[in-house]
Amino acid sequence: MLIESPRDQIFAKPQQVVDFAFTAAVADVFPDMVRRSVPGYETVISQLGVLARRYAQANSAIYDLGCSLGASTLAMALQVRAPQVQYICIDNSEAMIQRCELLLQRQLPVGSFQTICADICQVPMQSASVIALNFTLQFIEPAQRQALMQRIYEALLPGGVLVVSEKIKFADAQQQALMTELYMEFKRANGYSELEISQKRSALENVLLPDTIEMHQERLKCAGFGESSVWFQNFVFVSLLAVKT
Ligand code: GEK
């Protein structure tokens, strides 16, 4: 399901660039911003529905961590057949969570979901069959990432899954340069100007801190996940599936 929004023009004019934040202005254009900034975003979100359909368990919780406007939850709810699941959407941006609540109220049955404005590193989680962490771990303080992963692992029921989607970096400098250049080309092809690309890059510099795929897999392993698979990759974006056995 596509969430509509006005066109993202946040970085279109020259400006004093400050650290990127999920403000009301960002929330208002977020669907357009994320579609034109994350190659394969719609595929990741719709396939998340397929993964959730496979792994959702009856009478369990399904978490959407860093939910923004709830696109992941809507995609999962469209596909999940297991009875009595509760969708729990968490985001620490007031602007995002308010809009998410209104969007979900229009699409999902009353009582089937909950939206919470909080830091995902602080909120208790339990009895989960599916946890979606889409393009959000990259914004968490690196020193807190392992502890969050540990809590995610502990919140999952046996047979439960984590889907973690991220912008990544590469250990190999040549691969990093090539993938970054191809990603820039993707942004140009989607109508972003050189000014928009460079101002957004500066705004994200201290805020979005990517890890390599190997770092993600090591973190998942340390948290207790037996195995994890990269099921999607497009330029500098990946999605991993980790199963709690
Ligand atoms: C989607 N998953 O459409 N606690 C809670 N939320 C946080 C935190 C935190 N510590 N840090 C950042 N966020 C969504 C897209 S966007 C990705 C996720 C992007 C939230 C932040 O407020 C924002 O809404 C979201 O994580 C990241 O699939 O903008 O590239």
Structure keywords:
binds ligand GEK, Rossmann fold, 20% strand, 8 helices, 245 residues, seven-stranded mixed beta sheet, single chain, alpha/beta
Please tell me about this protein's structure.
- This protein has helices at residues 24-37, 41-55, 71-79, 94-107, 142-155, 173-189, 194-204, 213-223; strands at 61-65, 86-91, 113-117, 128-134, 156-167, 227-234, 237-243.
- The chain has 245 residues and is an alpha/beta fold.
- The protein has a domain at 41-169 and 210-243: Vaccinia Virus protein VP39 (Rossmann fold), CATH 3.40.50.150.
- Strands 3-2-1-4-5-7-6 form a 7-stranded mixed sheet, sandwiched between helices.
- Helix 2 packs across helix 3 (71-79) and helix 5 (142-155) crosses helix 8.
- The model has no long low-confidence stretch (mean pLDDT 97).
- Ligand GEK is lined by residues 22, 34, 45, 66-68, 71-72, 90-93, 96, 119-121, 134-136, 139-140.
CATH class of the domain at 41-169 and 210-243: Alpha Beta
Structural class: alpha/beta
Global Rg: 17 Å
Low-confidence stretches: none
Q: Which percent bin holds the helix content?
A: 40-55%
What best-fitting shape do the alpha-carbon axes yield? globular
Bound molecules: ligand GEK
Number of strands: 7
What is the element string, with H for helices and E for strands? Answer: HHEHEHEEHEHHHEE
Mean pLDDT: 97
CATH superfamily of the domain at 41-169 and 210-243: Vaccinia Virus protein VP39
Supply the CATH architecture of the domain at 41-169 and 210-243: 3-Layer(aba) Sandwich
Strand-residue fraction? Answer: 15-25%
How many angstroms does the end-to-end distance come to?
A: 31 Å
Number of helices: 8
Strand order of the largest sheet: 3-2-1-4-5-7-6
Biggest β-sheet: count, sense, barrel?
7 strands, mixed
Please name the CATH topology of the domain at 41-169 and 210-243.
Rossmann fold
